[in-house]
Amino acid sequence: MDLGFTLIAEAYDPAEIVEQAVRAEEAGFDFVEVSDHFHPWVSEHEHSGFAFSMLAAIAARTSSIRLATGVTCPFIRYHPAIVAQAAATTAILSGGRFTLGVGAGERLNEHVVGAGWPAVTTRHEMLREALEIIRLLWSGGYHSYDGKHLRLEDARVFDLPDKAPEIAVAAGGESAAELAAELGDALFATEPKAELISAYEKAGGRGPKYAEVPLAWAPSEDEGAESARRLFRFGVTGWKVQAELPNPVNFDAATALVTADHLREQFGCGPDVGRHLEVARQYMDAGYDRLALINDGPDVDGFFDFFTKELQPELRTM
């Protein structure tokens, strides 16, 4: 079981994100993942730094902790050739510690370039083509690609790491889990769904299974639940909403009736290690073996201290 820390780039400025990654390494985490957004989710979020710049800075400030995007949409806002280059460079700068997490994206981030927002079936087709392009470019030499949606013309990534980064493919349904098995090296999920792992493994997937575990450490359960409501209420809307709304103001409207009690149902809130373990166990029991802990509580330093002294020793023995 590997334990990671989720760097919430929408809630903290880029310099603070880098410092949190340094503290995560000191606290004993195995990896960090950083969200790759152009816009934040809700109005309480006031940041959204460029993921690959932050990863480069983290690579320079750390020595052992692994790094990942959680996750990058490798088409529309980016062309997959740019993602292939960025990921290869990050892998080199980190000494091979980088994993490229990819997914089919959200309108929130991708609409900004004015290229439209395709239906989900089209986005999955585009994701497939993007992964094929990235794999081509990582194989070395010049390549062209003429797909249904994406094209590549006589391109080469000159700086490649000795070993290509792992690709973790985000899945909310079985078709995406099958794509993760076919073109990825790992599965990435945000819910404790055992059926995603079943679909992944049935399709031949044998790699790691990442999942984000929602926690909100605070001195009291009420403080933790309220902080989670402020920072993560968008998460209760589900992917059919999260993928479709264009701006934070829309998510504010969609979550106006979300209460702290709604978050309390999903999150480990407050100081009780037992509740945090209960939430994490759902993902472990479902079969996920790389847990990225989200802390949407109000005190990051307090969470790191809690993790080091109380949570980590218990999780490592489960």
UniProtKB/TrEMBL annotation:
Record-listed E.C. numbers: 1.-.-.-
Coiled-coil stretches noted in the UniProt entry, renumbered to this chain: none
Sequence ranges assigned to domain Luciferase-like in this UniProt record: 12-283
Protein name: TIGR03557 family F420-dependent LLM class oxidoreductase
One example GO MF annotation: oxidoreductase activity, acting on paired donors, with incorporation or reduction of molecular oxygen
Matches recorded under InterPro entries: F420-G6PD/mer (IPR050564), F420_G6P_DH-rel (IPR019945), Luciferase-like_dom (IPR011251), Luciferase-like_sf (IPR036661)
Alphabetic keyword roster: Oxidoreductase
Species assigned in the record: Kribbella turkmenica
Entry annotated with the keyword Oxidoreductase: yes
Broad enzyme group: oxidoreductase
Pfam short name (any one): Bac_luciferase
